[in-house]
Amino acid sequence: MEAGGRFVGPIASVDSLFAWLLTDGWRDNTIFSADGPDGTVQGVQRDGTTCIVAARWDGGDDSDSAYVPGDTLDVAATCAATSPADTMPPR
């Protein structure tokens, strides 16, 4: 299952989406996690389902002080049944 969306306007933090997922019973799956200046990817799990949520935006150009970053946020989520490889072994 895959879903995507596009929001144009003042960019709200995608952290609010992850906070909502966590309050709705999802839990972090940090095996699937990456952050950068132009986006973030985070895994979440609940009830035998693992979802990868990716958000991308225009992070700007640090070498060009006149550059105006775009105001579009793209978010996509892909979900599948959780497999044993989706979980980290206990330490």
Structural description of this entry:
This protein has one helix spanning 15-23, and strands at 2-8, 27-36, 39-46, 49-57, 72-81. Strands 1-5-4-3-2 form a five-stranded antiparallel β-sheet. It has one domain. It starts with a strand and ends in a 10-residue tail after the last strand. Strand 2 and strand 3 (39-46) form a beta hairpin. The protein has 91 residues and is mainly β. The chain has one helix and five strands.
Give the beta-strand count.
5
Overall radius of gyration: 15 Å
**Category by helix and strand content:** mainly beta
Largest sheet, strands/sense/barrel:
5 strands, antiparallel
Number of domains: 1
Strand order of the largest sheet: 1-5-4-3-2
What's the N-to-C terminus distance?
A: 32 Å
Poorly predicted segments: none
Compact description:
Helices cover 10% and strands 48% of the residues. It contains 1 helix and 5 strands; from the N terminus they run βαββββ.
Top keywords for this entry?
mainly beta; five-stranded antiparallel β-sheet; 91 residues
Topology, element by element:
Blueprint: E1 2-8, H1 15-23, E2 27-36, E3 39-46, E4 49-57, E5 72-81
Antiparallel strand pairs: 1-5, 2-3, 3-4, 4-5
